[in-house]
């Protein structure tokens, strides 16, 4: 894989990219070879600061084609294509860039072919509807604050000034979390609706009650997998201060509906769910 053009593209927006080949390894206990099954794109840190790292299993080194489709150096964003050859070729898209204080990677769903199309694809339908109803101009629709929403990282906050909630149901200093990342802390949070699921380390997205009962019937030992009952895909509303180590604190003076970006709709993020 020729990485020079990719590294140059990242350098143009002030970032570093390192490509690391991951070989198979021998496990003494199982006396077998373990080979990574897929490539990964991550952000790491060394003595010079943050950098993007593309980890490629040895067996995929000749099967991956990585290209920068479009770059916006002044905006410090680029759209990366990763094409994997094979019987069923795969094409993954990633928006890489800088947001406030840190570099970020966002898996992009759909068929975006430009930075702006990728940013549009990451906005949930409700956010796009709010942009249209408030007639937000094109040059303001990607800002962290406009008439339609406030944004902090992957979370959008849409104004709901007329919403009234039961004070007894309001939770204080609650986390908003996607997967295992650092949570965004919310001063006041209200949750409603959603569906009950059973969650364990083996089923992090949760199983519906019917799926859970079927699993226990077929695998009785699964009852000992440390299950928790949780709510999935709830309606979430926030008010007050919202803080995170990588972002400036924002303050919501009244209730705002909380929505996560659409990364979970992409193939590369299909195993992530919004759970509370």
Number of domains: 2
The chain-level mean pLDDT equals 88
Give the CA-based shape: globular
**Oligomeric state of the chains?**
single chain
Count the beta strands: 18
**What is the string of helix and strand elements?**
HEEEEEEEEEHHEEEEEEHEEE
The parts where pLDDT drops under 50 for at least 5 residues are: 30-35, 270-276
The computed structural class is mainly beta
Residue share in helix: 10-25%
Number of helices: 4
**Strand fraction band?**
over 45%
Key structural traits:
disordered C terminus, 2 domains, six-stranded antiparallel beta sheet, 45% strand, globular, 18 strands, four-stranded antiparallel beta sheet
Write structural notes for this entry.
The chain has 276 residues and is mainly beta. It has 2 domains: 119 residues, no CATH class; 115 residues, no CATH class. It has 4 helices and 18 strands. The strands form 5 sheets. The chain has a 6-stranded antiparallel β-sheet with strand order 10-11-18-17-13-12, with helices on one face. Strands 6-7-8-9 form a 4-stranded antiparallel β-sheet, with helices on both faces.
Layout of strands and helices, then pairs:
Layout: H1 4-12, E1 17-22, E2 25-27, E3 32-34, E4 40-46, E5 49-57, E6 64-72, E7 77-84, E8 90-99, E9 102-108, H2 115-121, H3 125-133, E10 150-152, E11 155-159, E12 171-176, E13 184-192, E14 195-200, E15 203-207, H4 209-218, E16 228-232, E17 235-244, E18 247-260
Parallel strand pairs: 1-5
Antiparallel strand pairs: 2-3, 4-5, 6-7, 7-8, 8-9, 10-11, 11-18, 12-13, 13-17, 14-15, 14-16, 17-18
